[in-house]
Structure formats: C-alpha cells, structure tokens
Amino acid sequence: MGVRTISQEAFDDLVRENVEDLGMDPSEALEDALYTLKLQGVDLSGIITCVPGESSVKDNPVIACLDRLKEFDSVSIDGPLRDEDFDEISSLFKNLNELCSSQESGNAAIATKHGAVDLTCSICSKIKISTRSNRVLVPCFKALAVLIRDIQSTERFRNCTGPNIVVDLLNDSSSDSDLLDAGFAVVAAAATGNEVVKQLFMELKIDELILQVLNRESKTTIRALYDAICALLTPDDFRVVASQVYGYARTFAKLGIATALTEALQAGIGSDSLVSASTALKAIAVNDEICKSIAESGGIDTLLRCIDDSGEQGNKTAAKTCCSLLSKLAGSDSNKSTIVEKQGLDKLITLALRFSDDPLVIQEVMLIISIICLRSPDHAAKAIEAGAGDLAVQAMKRFPVAAQMQRNACNMIRNIAVRSAENRTILLANGIEKLIRTAKANNETCRAAATDALRDLGLDNYNN
C-alpha cells in the first residue's frame, strides 16, 4: 500500500521535459524517464510508454476501447440508444475482456489506471434488466471480473458503489444463468483480498441471494457462485488483524447454504459442480456444529460414494477434492465414528491403491486417516486392519521426495501408534523406522513430524 505511483500525465510530462528542456532525442527521453522512476522505486504498472512523435496514449487499443465506452456512458443506456448501439457496447466489453485477460500483457493495469473499473460500474448502473440489455451486461460483468485483480482495483470498485450495483442487478436477473455466472464472478473477484468489500456484500444480503440461486429449479451450474462463496469466506486481507469471515460462514450455515450445497453433492461424480460445491462447502465447515449438520444432511454418505466413484472412474481431481472436504468434516469426533462405521477407512485405502501413482491423492487419504485416529485407539486399530500401515510403507518407499506426503505419512503413523503397543509392533516389524528416518533426513518440511512419529513409536533415539 506504500508503493509510490505516478499518473500517466505526470509520466508524459517527464518524458516531454527530457526532450524540450534537456535536448534528448525521443527514445532516449523515454528510456531515461523509465530508468529514473524505477531507480526511485516508482510502480510503473498501468503506465503506457510512448516515444514522443511516434505514438501517443490514444493509440493504445485499451484506451481506444475505453474512450468509445465513455461516449456511450455520457447518455442513458436505456434512453436513446439503438439496437446497434447495444451491439457495439457488447462488442467493446468483449474486446476489453480479451485485451485484459492475459496477465503478461499488463493491459488490465493500464485499463484500471485509466478509470475502467469506474467506467464499467457507471455503465452497469444505467442498465435496467431486459432481454435487450442482458446482452450488454454479461460481457460487461466478464470484463469487470478481469479488471478487478488487486487491492487497488477492489478499492476502486468499492468507492464507486460497485457492490450495490452488482447485487441489485443480480437480484433482478435470478433466472438468467449466464448473467448470474458473470455477476458472481465479479463478486468473487471483488471480495478476494478485501475485507471491507466482503462486509459490504454481506450487508447487501448476498448470502440470501446465493441460497435463492442454489435452490432455484434450473440445474444449470453457476460455477462462479461457488467461487464467490469461497472468496467471501476466505480470510485473505492481510491489512486486518481479525477477519469476520468465520462469522459469515456460520451465517451461511444457519441460513441453509451448507444444506443446499450438501444436496448439490448428491448429483455425484457425474455433476460438473461436484468439485466446486465441495470446495465451497469446505469453506463453510468452520466448526464442529456445522460439520455435524453436514453429516446429518447426508454429506458423509455422499462423499464416500463419490470417493468410490472417483476411484472407479479415475477422476483424480474429484478424489482429491472429496477427500479434502471429508478431512474437514472428520474434525468432528462424532463424524470420525460415522466415517469408520460406514467402512470409510476401507474405501479410503482402496482409493489410495487405485491412485497408487499419485502422491497428491495418497497424502489426502493419509490426512483423513490421521485425523480419524487422533486420540482414538479403536479407530487406529481399524486403520491398521484396513491397511494403513502397508499404505504408509509402500508410499514412503515409492515417493521419497514427495515432502507433504511424507509429512502426512509421519503424522498418520504417529496417531496410529501413540496409544497402541500392538500397532507399534506391527509398524516397526514392517520397517517403518528406516523410512521415517529417511524422510527426516531428506525432507526439511517433515522433520518435526518424523521426530514425533519416531518418539510415539517408542524409540529412544528419536532425535537422531
């Protein structure tokens, strides 16, 4: 936030002074200005660099696009505009989206520095929902989602009442899937990294709108809606000491969004919303009460079925995502027992064997088993019976440099062994000590976990 910046006008003046006052040729004047400002630590993102006499700021395609949109912004969108005007506005926003989509181009920074967020919000505020105007709103929202990319742009969005504009339009268009998807993409972009914007959306009752969309009859997936849930519930604004997102998650759950997402998971592995809905549900599951309520709504049954299906169909993404959510739900002691009672340990070991070539899936399985076995000798015994010890040995041998998997293996072994002499004997007989010591020596990230595992296996020289 303390980075020095410069306006386009001030930059152009500096280049012009180099030419007129210091007698530099145009190319030299530009290079000198860039070098001097960089030396001073000035952030030049969004600055258009032009060689005087050869090109100008207005030649930039982003600026040309914005200038034309400003002309339309000067009149009422639903006033004297013709159909072809709507077509051109739509085309301009599509062009702006294409120009700014590539992060490497720097065009999004140029557009934002030259007022694109304010301009787009202004045009949105003048649009009334209709079949005609919707063909402008969708590309408009898509462009806005690309433009909002950092704290400066989210603050611009906030200052020009962007949250109110977007939520009002979404409330008026709850039956248009394309518009909802584009609009919730803006919500996700704007809420990312900005605690105040999250709060504004909550004050505007975005949670009620989310539930309304989840419960609507249409089964068309609004993928950005799930992204918006995650953005609203992620504590990612490092300017604030204490985030309010955990309270928002409880509000979401109390309203019924957790239940609605759990029901969405029931469509199973064939649903294109499974991964997104699982990720969103994980963001809501912030305490024991919510985790238990998800289980009571059938969440564990659904996840175990999806884990089985993902293994059979070879869907690694679904497998990892479902395991990640299950590990969150397993934080509740009653849910641990439910998972075990429903043969969850057997299903998890089977999944790991089916994806024996992927340490990322295996480490998710190990994490769940570790959580299930925490402070529970009975669950640890069942984990050994299901094959958790053999899984650890095979995976640690096969993936010696997969640091996170090795760490999860050590934690799993520790929780399986700590309260069971019988389990310790079995694991040591299978050669686990050597594998843990190798992991400790080769992977810095799992040294502490390896030391704890060696100690809880009953070994005296665990610090060596």
From TrEMBL:
**What's the domain of life for this entry?**
Eukaryota
Name the UniProt key words of this record, in alphabetical order. Repeat
Q: Know the name of this protein?
A: Armadillo repeat-containing protein 6
Organism for this UniProt entry: Arabidopsis thaliana (Mouse-ear cress)
